[in-house]
Structures are given as C-alpha cells and as structure tokens.
Amino acid sequence: MLDGHVLVDAHVHVPRLSSLTPAWVDWARQFGRPGVLEEVWRADGTPDPAALDRLFADEGVDVALLFCEYSPKATGYQLFDDLLPIVEHNPRRFRPVANVNPHLHFPIARELERQLDLGAAALKIHPVHGGFRPDDAAMYPAYAVLVERGVPLVVHCGTSSFPGSTNAYADPQLLDAVLRDFPDLHVVLAHGGRGWWYDAAAFLAVSRPNVWIELSGLPPKRLPEYYARFDLGRLARKFVYGTDWPGVPGQAVNARAVASLGLPDDVVPLVLGGNALRVYADLAPAVP
C-alpha cells in the first residue's frame, strides 16, 4: 500500500528487450528512471521477476497489470507468454493483460480466449501501433468474448511518437459504434485522449457509466489543464491510475502527485486502486 491507499498500476510494460524495436528501448531510457533497465532486465534482455517484484514493493504497488503488444510496424513484439514467469513469481502482485492484432491473429477470438484462460485481467488493443481501427469488424468477435466473460477492453487513446504509428486511430470517436454495439462492455481509455482528444475522452467518461480514463503517460500536475472544461472532482471518479512504466521516473511519486490535486477525499482511493478493482477482471483477491 502507499500512504494507506491500495495502489494498482494499470499500465506496465515488462517485455523481452530482444523482441522490440530500438525505439522502445530509447523511449524507456529517455523517460524512465536512470538505470532501471539494468536493474530489472538481465544482460540477455529478459526481465528478472524477483528484481521487478522488489522494486514494485518498494514503490507501494499492490497490483500491476502487465501489458503485451503485437505491433511489428511500430514497437515490435511484447509477447503475452513472456509475461507468465513474472506472474508465476508473484501472482498476488502481477496480472497479465491480453493483446490481439487483427492483422496477425485469426481467428482472433481463439487467441483472445487462450490469453484469458492464462489469467488475463483485460484485453488491451493498440490501434495506433497495430495499424487498425478499433471499430474494425474484425475486432467484433473479440469484443463479444469480453462481454461474455465480463472482461474489460483497454484502448490506446492518445498520440504516439513511435515510428510506424497511425495516430488517427487513437480518436475516441472511433469507439462510438463499439459502445453502441456492446453496451455492457467496460472500456478504459488508456492515456485519456493524450494530444488532441482530451475533451472527447472526458465526455465519454462522464456520459457513459462503462467508460473510464486511465492516466498513464499524463503528468498528474497537468490533469487540471488537460480537462479544464470539466469538473475535475466529478471526472476523477472515472479515473484509473496507471503509469506506462518503465517510461516514468517512479510509481509512488506519480501516485502522490495525483493524491495532491485537491480531489475530494473519497475520490483519491478510487483513482489509486478502487476503480481498477471494480473494472478489471478478478483483481480484488490479489490485494491483501
């Protein structure tokens, strides 16, 4: 726990470095804490589960959601199965998140079900890096599986600077048909509309009970600026804490910055962990 609050980091990357493009490693070194790659990753590029577990314990992280990504046009491959040794090391702290790409996985529902059967707490899609629209009909069988199993969808909703990105696919308006056709699907907007779509993301979150804003990649002190047209205290009731680690200096410092924004007392624990425990699949048993 961190300062008496359950802390869930809903956006973490711990890939095998050898399967990535050089741009990903450059990003981690530019925005992360100096030396973190050497601290957590071994010389062969594989992550050390024990080192990661110690670091996250020191940062006060109760649960971390580990992302994978199949985006050869942009960042390379962050394979789902590479996450499993980390989860096995400490299944109370670490949970994997599924990823599928309609250009690579067919039948797409079969691959999603495989990852869900291995413990995925959500499906995260990356239209910007993967090169597809989130409302592509090819994704609908996957969305149907999520509704059937009660698992949320996380969508990259923000600009990306990685070579090969298609930022137009991050527009939250592209989710309108998905939300219409799957009204029971919980949708988490990772990066909260970063870049050009803060208003659209916020409007979806306040107008739909099943839409959430995940804060990864957003400096906490700038949240009042990004969402200036909205009542931040009300909007924050739909916030989910996430960092995009290792591309941040630290999880605890970001969480404390969120807690110092002057939000209502009952909202802070929702942002730091309560909302994630509600939205993601089967997280509650992972918290002591």
From TrEMBL:
By its UniProt entry, which InterPro entries does this protein fall under? ACMSD, Amidohydro-rel, Metal_Hydrolase
For this UniProt record, give its keywords in alphabetical order, as a comma-separated list: Lyase
Question: Sorted alphabetically, which Pfam families does this protein's record hold?
Answer: Amidohydro_2 (PF04909)
Which residue numbers delimit the Amidohydrolase-related domain? 8-280
Q: Which domain of life is it from?
A: Bacteria
> Signal peptide position in this chain?
none
Q: What is this protein called?
A: Amidohydrolase family protein
The protein's organism comes out as Geodermatophilus maliterrae
